[in-house]
Amino acid sequence: MGNTGGGDVVAGQSAPITSQERAEGAKNHPEILQEFGGTYQGSQAAYVTRVGQNIAVQSGLSNSASSFTVSLLNSPVNNAFAIPGGYVYVTRQLMALMNNEAELAGVLGHEIGHVAARHSQKRQSKAQTNTILGVLGTVVGGLLGNAGGIASTVGGLLQNNALQVAQIATLGYSRGQELEADRLGVQYLARAGYDPRALSTMLASLAAQDDLEARVAGRDARSIPEWASTHPDPASRVADAQRIAASTGVTGGRLNEAAFKAAVDGVLYGDDPAQGIVEGQTFQHPDLRFAFSVPQGYGMQNGTQAVTISGPNGQAMFTTAGSYNGNMSDYLTRALKGIAGDTQLQVGQVSRTTVNGLPASYVTARANTQSGAVDITIFAYEFSNTSAFHFATLTKAGDAGVFNSMFQSVRRLSAAQAAAIKPRYIDVVTVRAGDTVASLANRMAYDNFRTERFLVLNRLSANARLNVGDRVKIVVKGNR
């Protein structure tokens, strides 16, 4: 394998964690937790930490399990990553997609492999050159060229240190770096006594989930999904991971499926109501009591500071510019500066209107990039004398109207509507006589794609037959 930025690393022989890396990791850790919803407070956290520390010591970065801080993040996005200094992260959503402990260990081992190979040095350099104009150019280039090829989100333009740290942690890897991390992750699995094929089965589940998410959102399955934007093309890596597992010479190994199913039972699935919930094309926030809808073909990703929206003709985020004193012009100016920074803009006139009883104001500004002109629109709503929220949208020049239906959809929720919003959870159930894929899928707490969701969640084929006594995952809605 060629030079991948850190040189080839043999499992168990990587350079130990340095004091500088520990200091940087300790500094960045709280900010990453802030950006990704904090640590998950369920009983699953201790289980993930134990598995993660056990696989991490196989890397040679440290022989002490306590050197590694392994966090289960309260995030509805399928993701995992690690940063120098012994800090490893996996989201509860990605954990829910797994079907055994070896898959959890494989994913965490893969991320630790990136750190062991020192891949982050190139990524930090890349992040530091990602100026506002560069990001705008990337986005508009995708808009002008390939409708599904937008690789950056407006949410990535937020100017705050927590998000910048998180971006560095989750910037995309090259294919060579991914392959090296796959190789190391598989070796760590074998050394720890797990089935080394577990990483390949997890990659297969991720590829299936990426495809399903695209179908649910009405996007082209070839567009860039959330996890694949930071870990390119899991589908094409399945065969490579199988080949690497075969090369270890290890056959069999632990899966620990029963222990994993017991641990994942009851984990929160999808959005946390405290951060708002995405239901199809609609976002609802029961605590703040508002909702909005995005156009068909556009997907949403809910974060701690913003809801990001992406689709074929533009990108957007819904967030707040902070304190509001009743002066909407000042608010719009602050929101625009938060997106564009010092970029030269041609700012239009502020317009005022009312949307579903909410006073609203909006302004569009144009920026010129190497790829062409783009329009940034701020559409803000006054919820009270001290509270305002806004959309920031990014489109090709002249196309801001593609979001008009979204702008007009913002509305308040009644107390009854807010109270009716319930979280979803993973429920691990035992297959009984007479149960079928269809009957169990019917219990999934969704209005669409129930069978497809059930199959992907359990890594089952379309013609799968269930055996009495099998333990499978379904998603239910309610309070636990």
UniProtKB/TrEMBL annotation:
InterPro entries: LysM, Mito/Outer_Membr_Metalloprot, Peptidase_M48. It holds the Pfam family Peptidase_M48. GO terms for biological process: proteolysis involved in protein catabolic process. Its cofactor is Zn(2+). Residues 427-474 form the LysM domain. Keywords: Hydrolase, Metal-binding, Metalloprotease, Protease, Zinc. GO terms for cellular component: membrane. PROSITE patterns: LYSM. GO terms for molecular function: metal ion binding; metalloendopeptidase activity. Residues 1-27 are annotated as: Disordered. The keyword Protease applies. PANTHER family: M48 FAMILY METALLOPEPTIDASE, METALLOENDOPEPTIDASE OMA1. This is M48 family metalloprotease. The lineage of its organism: Bacteria, Pseudomonadati, Pseudomonadota, Alphaproteobacteria, Sphingomonadales.
